[in-house]
Amino acid sequence: MRRAGRLKSKIAATAMAVTMLGASGVVLSAGAWATQTMSATTWVNVRSGPGTSYGVLGVLNPSQTVTSTTTQGGWHKITASNGLTGWVYQTYLKAVAGSSDAGSGSTGSGSTGSGSSGTTTPAAGTATAISAVNIRSGPTTSSTVVGVLNKGASIPVTGTKSGGWTEVVHNGVNRWISTNYLTTGSVSTSPVAGQVRTTAELYLRTGGSLSSPPDGLLPANSVVDTTGKTTADYTEIIHKGVNRWIATRYTKPVTSGPTTPGVPPVTGTVTVTVGSLYVRATSAADGTVVATVYRGASLQTTGVTEGDRLQIVYQGAVRWVFKAYTSAGANNAVDPGDTVIPPGLTTSGISQLNGNAKAVFNHVVATYPQIRTIYGWRASSNWSSDHPNGRAVDIMIANWSSQSSIDLGWAIAKDFAANASKYNVSYIIYRQQQYNAAYPSRGWRMMEDRGSATENHMDHVHVSVKP
What superfamily would CATH give domain 2-95? Predict the structure, then answer.
């Protein structure tokens, strides 16, 4: 009887070793308690216990292989080739094919999903994956992974959704995929109103706001058709037959032929003198906002004013702006916040930074020649809107785990903390610590563990500035 009880416990433990990972992660094979060779998907902390409250023992490099011997609450106990032993969260590991001593993953049902027999609700349409995504037996991340839908591949959908999951038909059986990784956009019926050219790589969004989910990337210098619809910061376009939205700030109108009939002739030019300025459809103070322009932008004027509003011609249409926030003449002067990128410095998104962020960039270039990589604007950010709005600079630290590089990073971070008012700094992050310039007496405070070395700012100093 005792032997039968041990056998029953062993079977129960094996049944619990189901496939584990987030909806967009790489499939980890079942039998997670068996010895398994795995590799890190990014820079990631190795901790002394299965939780973020445990101390960091070391860091795994991207693609570094380790041996996993047990799991607990989504954490793997691993041993690296250099003898480092500790715990790593499952999201930052992937199984090396064929490495598990327990064999391949189970094809049975997950904790909440259907098994291999499944149900057969008919398809009611199709959806396309915007990135490689797991197909699961149920609408939870604990449900069994039964396959992977590759980026760009289409799959039938039933029309049923549950808590952020979409029901699909996979190999004749109803399965589930995270809705965030699918698009079901229908073919656009909007007439073409014009064209714009992108000046940077932009996210294609499903709506006209930063909170709308992205649905792919549009390369810089792309020419796309517009529908004429805009919000304060976004322009609706037609991309691959589907209506999507892109940031207006990083587009230029493509003009051809004569000026649109009914638009008055241009008589002069003004320059925007504030950080941002609304372009409105009418001269009313509460007129519909159709776009936002930024400091230094040149606007064509008709010479017509109504009260405190100035009439302009913007993207081929008559629009209005607040006159007090402009100055006569085109912006031909060099902005004191302009940047000069020295040879050998790797950069991205510097020209799209605001004036305060450009001043940060210029100070780093002039003061710290050891820095060879600096990043600024980018289309999206997981943690704040500072990068998409040109208010953040990432100062990358080469060989960041060496003590001399750590010291350099702290010298830069503390330099901007001490001069926060001069550079209009709002906050600084370095080595998982954050400094809030509005509360200097608090000093440097520990930040939550975001997982990887880059997300924890171990390899760079992040400086966010005011608008």
Answer: SH3 Domains (2.30.30.40)
pTM of the model: 0.34
CATH 3.50.50.60 fits 125-183, yes or no: no
Tokens of 64: 């570094």
Residues 6+ apart with CB under 8 A from 114: 137, 138, 173, 174
Q: Which CATH architecture has domain 268-328?
A: Roll (2.30)
Q: CB within 8 A of 220, min separation 6: which ones? A: 198, 199, 200, 201, 202
Query: CATH code for 194-253?
Result: 2.30.30.40
Digit-coded pLDDT (tens) for 333-357: 434 445 667 667 788 888 888 888 9
Residue 436 has pLDDT above 90, yes or no: yes
Whether 308 and 300 have beta carbons less than 8 Å apart is answered as no
Among the residues of 157-238, which ranges form H helices? Answer: none
As given in the structure block, the two tokens for residue 70 are: 């047990």
Beta strands, E only, 234-295: 234-239, 242-247, 251-253, 268-272, 276-280, 289-294
What residue spans define the domains of the chain?
A: 2-95, 125-183, 194-253, 268-328, 346-465
pLDDT one-digit tens code per residue, 78-122: 988 777 889 888 878 887 765 544 333 332 333 333 334 455 677
Mean pLDDT of 408-429: 94
27 pLDDT tier (thresholds 50, 70, 90): very low
| CA-closest candidate to residue 393, choices 381, 411, 404, 407 | 381
